[in-house]
Amino acid sequence: DAGVTQSPTHLIKTRGQQVTLRCSPKSGHDTVSWYQQALGQGPQFIFQYYEEEERQRGNFPDRFSGHQFPNYSSELNVNALLLGDSALYLCASSGLLGAGGETQYFGPGTRLLVL
Amino acid sequence: AQSVTQLGSHVSVSEGALVLLRCNYSSSVPPYLFWYVQYPNQGLQLLLKYTSAATLVKGINGFEAEFKKSETSFHLTKPSAHMSDAAEYFCAVTYTSGTYKNIFGTGTRLKVLA
User: Fold this and answer.
1) Smallest Cβ distance to A103: which of B42, B46, B95?
2) Nearest to B100 among A41, A98, A104 (CB)
3) Residue A83: which of A57, A45, A112, A61 has the closest Cα?
4) What mean pLDDT value characterizes chain A?
5) Handedness of CA A30, A55, A39, A15 (dihedral sign)
6) Are A9 and A111 in contact (CB under 8 A)?
């Protein structure tokens, strides 16, 4: 059983560009959450998708958007990249949305560097 | 504002010694509490979680944590450290009353000395 997979593993972009990161959840999971982990910091919650809709959102600007597909995979899009967007982006999947106590399974992350 | 505090960004212990990593949360309503471990260049792996059942929670790799409501704490312990325990540990809290919030601490890097 494949766990959570993310692509690409590494990415280099320049300021102002747009980026799309991809995530495939663990088999049987229908909820996907995205996190940003800056160097030396803990992950920060960006948003969570369930049934192809954004259900919960953290304190991130509208430049950060996402999508969930019928097969439960998900994309994170970031527009107008800033230097401060350089971070490890983690995807996590879980069963049943938003109960709070569900176990999240994390992917290895995509490391984004903005120059 | 709701928050999670991990005391000590770096902790060093000798192999075989007790591991104690501290986590305090701010809330009058008991949240869901988690401990994760992160090895270099990897994602996070769940060690254990508290979801309002038993206050002493046992996890993988010999780790356990005790939920203490009066102290708003959820410290992680392991009786005997192993070299393979060297990693970064994150405490996380999920609040579901009112606005959903999922908050991670800033992490504690554990170093195990031979």
Assistant:
1) B46
2) A98
3) A112
4) 92
5) positive
6) yes
CA distances from B98 to A9, A51, B18, B27, B29 (A): 35, 22, 38, 12, 11
Residue A100, min C-alpha distance to chain B (Å): 6
Chain A from 52 to 91: CB within 8 A of any B CB: 56, 58, 90
CA dist A78 → A30, A97, B77, B103 (Å): 23, 24, 38, 21
User: pLDDT tens digits, residue range B27-85?
Assistant: 766 678 999 999 987 889 999 998 877 889 999 999 999 999 889 999 999 999 999 99
Instruction: Choose among A98, A99, A109: nearest Cβ to B43.
Output: A109
pLDDT digits 0-9 by tens, A60-80 = 999 999 999 999 999 999 999
CA distance B27 to A80: 36
| Chain centroid, CA B34 distance in Å | 6
